[in-house]
Structures are given as structure tokens and as C-alpha cells.
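Record minuted for completeness.

…
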Amino acid sequence: MSDPDSNLDAIYRNLHRNPELSFQEHRTAALVETELRGLGYDVLTGIGGTGVVGILRNGAGPTVMVRADMDALPVQERTGLDYASDTRGTDQEGRELPVMHACGHDMHVTCLIGAARRLASETDSWNGTLEVLFQPAEELGTGATAMVNDGLFDRIPRPEIVLGQHVSPLPAGVVALQPGPAFAAADGIRIVLYGQGGHGSRPETTIDPIVMAAGTVLRLHTIVSRETAANATLVLTIGSLHAGTKNNIIPDSAEILISLRSFDPSVREAAITSIRRIVRGESMTAGAPREATIDVYESFPSVTNDLDAARRTSSVFKDYFGEQNVIEPGAVTGSEDVGILASAAGARCCFWLLGGSNPALFATARSVTDIIETVARQPSNHAPNYAPVIQPTLDTGVEALVIAAREWLGPEINPLPSSSISRDQKDVNRILVVETEAVPLGEDSRRAGP
């Protein structure tokens, strides 16, 4: 078999240049299918729309699933990279939009292809059944559910553990694995406020939904600052406010889209109750002709890593990468739907963050505060100028998936071949072990996922 690490850089650049929106990952799925068939995997396609699963059976032993997501975002890329995307696509509402891999799913796919190659080439080092799953539509929070509802676990063996990773603005060469609650639950909420339209020169004849929306936005932000306890975690972000078509027309409606992140179900329920109260109150105060609509249109649960699985996986990471390069980041407010796969299978979940920022940027860090400040200065996931450095991110990501999969596929870990990851790059990140407590690494470091 040829070098399993060959041309991975080229695959990553190809995927980055050709992103696809959720449930439209046809080109990516075809590339993955070709790779897996060439490696001897049994391949299932079209699960949940565009999902792909490769199965490699290697004697008696555990069944382990390793998962990557494939979809991109409606963002205009501004990285300036020579492999930047200029792709445009049409979303589920029929809007033509720019498309970019602004969350790093192209890196996830490439890393899993690399791991699938490596594990296929080293079957003498593990036993059991390996499942590599490439999932659509993580950004909508519905891709995992779509695959499950399409009979995923009627078609493949149920795994004993689901493994995976998400790239982040941490230094490349670092992996961050949090036992227990690791990623927040997420809700997407759509609010439509109704007014009475008219001419901009005669606002007294109208009920202006834009003014109504402005008041609503300001009041909604008090849910976190004035209604939520300081020791509770809640993030409320208004990512979209749309109203009107022309400067001299007062429209008859305004739409607000909210992203809500939480860990505690009681905090979530209280926040949604407050959103309903505030929206209806603003609407009533404005004398709206009809009640506002409030739709929780997407929801997925928090990701909770199995405690024993996280500790066991973290231990083998530390053996390979060095303790200074394996950290507990604390629970992060980014969200993921990987836990749905584990729950549906009745399996453990172990999901970690993969550093993707240039390690040289952290060379002068001398404290946890320095690290937090450096992370905060990096572009975050979903930003138009976000892109992980290809190396050592890619090599680290492949190694992490291989190490974790082999730990769970076999009773022992055989020595891995020397990685192309530079050890002096790892030394750059030595400061990351200053404290053992789980310290949230700043808002930007937490923005992995949808």
C-alpha cells in the first residue's frame, strides 16, 4: 500500500476550495467514497441524504466509530489564501449565497481520510470493526439525526464508542479533551414581529416593526446579564435581523434569529420562557396588529464525554503528544450533534478539540492569561478570515484519531511510527500545563461548531 499520508495536504486544499452547504455535500461524499473503496472498506452511501460510512472488519473485537462532519457555511471567504473558496450555493430557503469552510469541516474530513488510510494499512496492530462515518449537515444540527432516522444502526453494527474532533483556535499540535459536559446544547429560535406598513414620510400611520425589533434586541440581551445567575452558563446571540426592502417603506414585519447555548436544561427553559415574555411584551407595547410568532426551529443536546473514556483517551494522547500538549479546556459553548450518534447507538462518546492556530503565535506566552489573550486575537470558527494552518494541524489530527481508535480497537497500544509533527513545535506550547484546573480559554476558543 502507498504512503497513507501522501497527498493529504492536496485533499485538504481541494475540499477547502470546493465547500458545500448542509445536505448538499455530494462532491465531498463522492471523494470520500472513492477513497474508502480504494482502501477495501465496505461502503454505504446516501445515509441521511449524503452521509457515508466505511466499515473495515478485522477479526473479533470491539466496534469503534470515528466521525467527521462535511458541510460548509454561507460565508464569503476573506482569508486571502491561494486555495480560498469563491464557490456560491443555494441554501434551503432558495437564497444564492457565498460558501466557505469557515468551521474547519474540510480539516475534519481530511484527517479522517488520513486515519482511515493509516488504520487500513496497519491491521496487524488492532482487532475488531472500524466504522468511519462522514456526516452531513452538522451546521444545521440535524445531520446526525437524519442519519439515525434513515436506519443507520439497522445497516451497521452499533459501536461501543463514538470518537471525533473539532478544530479550534488553540495552538496547532495541541489537543483538548474535557471529561463530562464538553459542548453546550444549542437552540435556533426564529421570531417574527408584525407591524403595519406604510410610507416612510408618514410613520404616524404605521406600526413600525423595525422599532419593535430594535427594542426587542436590546431587551433580549438582558436575559443573560439580568436574569441568569452568574454561576450558570448561557449564551444568547442574535445573528440575524431582517426587515424591509427600501429606505422609504416601513415594512409590515421584521425577523430576528437567535442562537441560544446552555448546559443546564432548567437554564435553557427559563431563557426560552423569558424570550417569549419579552417578545410578546414588546409587541403588545407597540400595539401590534397580531401576536408575534416564536419558533424554536432547531435544537440539539449538549455533548457529554464519558468520564472513563475521556480519561483513558487523554492518557494515550499524553503518552504520544506529551502532557504539555494535552489539556482540559473546560466546557465550551460551541455546540455539536455528534452526541446524537452516540446516544442512538447506546455508545460512549469521546470528542475533543484540535488546535489549528500557528504555534509560533504562542511562542511568547508565559501564563494562562497570555494564552487566553492570544487565542482571543485569532479569527474564530465561522469568521470569514478563519482557516487553520495546514501543518501541523493535519498531522496532529490524523495521529489523534489513529491513537484513539487503536486504543479502543485493541487491548494494547502498539508503538506508533514517528510522526512528521515537529517536536520543537510542541515545545512552543509547553506553557499550556501551567495549571491543571479546567480554564475556559476565552470566547474565541469556544466557538467550535455551529
About this structure: The first helix runs from residue 8 to 17.
